Amino acid sequence: MFFERVEGGDRAVLVHVEFPESDNREDPQEFEELVVSAGGDPAVFIGGSRTTPHPKFFVGPGKLEEIKAAVKSSGAELVLFNHTLSPSQERNIERTVECRVLDRTGLILDIFAQRARTHEGKLQVELAQLQYQSTRLVRGWTHLERQKGGIGLRGPGETQLETDRRLLQARITSIHRRLAKVERQRNQGRRARARSDTPTVSLVGYTNAGKSTLFNALTRAEVYAADQLFATLDPTLRRLSIPDMGDVVLADTVGFIRHLPHKLVQAFKATLQETAEADLLLHVIDSADENRIENKEQVESVLEEIGSLDIPRLEVFNKIDLLDDFEPVIERDEQGLPERVWVSAQTGAGMALIEQAITERLGDDIIARQLALKPSEAALRAALYQYNAVLGEDYDSHGNLLLDVRIQKKDLRQLVKKNGLDPDRFGVSAEKEFFEH
Predict the structure, then answer these.
(1) How many CB atoms lie within 10 A of CB 250?
(2) 152-194 pLDDT tens trace
(3) pTM of the model
(4) Which of 62, 108, 309, 311 has CB 3.0 to 4.6 Å from 304, enough for a Cys bridge?
(5) Residue ranges of the Hflx-type G domain (predicted)?
């Protein structure tokens, strides 16, 4: 007979097992940070090693007894595993240690549930939680296997387990419909930005790399930023005006983590679409983190899963204020394009370098030349000023106005169409298809 579940507590026994031959190793330090971020109080940390997980308990019988003893001695109400457990393993361990057991996926879901702020974010988290819980109903309590009885409860012949499963599936279907509506609304916004030729720059990176702090430093917004894992869940978009570039839309997105549960990737599809359809990704990396190389690879793994690996990326090594004598700098590739930028979002050092790098990566379509305008073309002069395209002006001996012009091709395309101009005047007549787009 199963024991009754106790009310949830925050004092926890942490379990981490090393599998030497596995490529899916977890980081014990990151595990502790996850627990603290969830509001947990790590009471005991139990480590161990195995060649393969035990099919019934994940850990061996001896280690299981050690966990049970730690639960009793520490007064913990919860056992957390830094691994993914099957529903049957979770049940078997609970039955032995007589307290709640939660795996890494359940822990991350709990953090997400705490952090979600917007209606969309809460729907996404609820969807992931329901999908996670649906696999665990099978191993539920004994009362779920009984048919309902009593006055007003007789008739359908359903067990409580079947009823719960049916209601849960109905809720999942309802959330899918509502998220589909949100996705359609987001797609409309993206199409509007595409029509206006406004490029999108999306911040991606490992959780707690400083994306929101960088977002605030660039846009002067007040997005919630904290030194904790998954401080940001809900996407935030702001318009950012960059010198010599014009306006771009900057998107702050959810942080990634190693072995991010696939259900979360699916649930946050609408959010991650901002990344999948960006013109440039700013991959924010914690330069002071000793695991930054591994974290970078994990981010690239998630980018591949959502189909964003081929989008141009600019690496932003953040938190240089935590390094010794390191100044902001742009590093370039063999073609001279910015490849990575070293900055500190906390102190604001290097923000101008990021804007310069974005301009060079997205602004390679900039036209720079001198234009001679007749006195009768004052309207064109005014239009060029509206696009902030005039760097300076002078007059020649014939009274013509000489303008030093620097303008993006997307703005030039609008200007040419609106004023019926000849692209040849700007030296781009060979790119006829561009202006017919």
Answers:
(1) 24
(2) 444 454 566 666 777 778 888 888 888 778 777 766 766 665 5
(3) 0.68
(4) 309
(5) 199-366
**Annotated binding residue 24:** no
DSSP-assigned beta bridge partners for residue 243: none
Query: What is the DSSP annotation of 242-286?
Result: ETTTEEEEEEE-PPB-TT--HHHHHHTHHHHHHHHT-SEEEEEEE
User: According to the model, what pLDDT value does residue 142 have?
Assistant: 44
236 in a labelled binding site: no
Residue pLDDT, tens place only, 318-350: 999 998 888 999 999 888 889 999 999 999 999
Q: Which residues make Cβ contacts (< 8 Å) with residue 388, sequence separation at least 6?
A: 246
- The verdict on whether residue 336 carries a ligand-binding annotation is no
Report d(CA 427, CA 166) in Å as an integer: 66
Q: Are 307 and 281 in contact (CB under 8 A)?
A: no
Tokens standing for residue 101: 């057991």
What count of Cα atoms within 13 Å lies in the side-chain half-sphere of residue 407? 27
Please report the beta strands in 325-412, taking only residues with DSSP state E, as ranges in sequence order: 329-332, 338-342, 366-373, 390-395, 401-408
Is position 209 annotated in a ligand binding site?
yes
310 is in an annotated binding site: no
* 100 touches 85 (CB < 8 A): no
Q: Where are the beta strands (DSSP E) in 148-303?
A: 200-205, 236-242, 246-252, 280-286
Of 19, 44, 42, 43, nearest to 32 by C-alpha is 42
Distance (Å, whole) CA 271 – CA 194: 18
Which residue do the tokens 């609408």 mark? 270
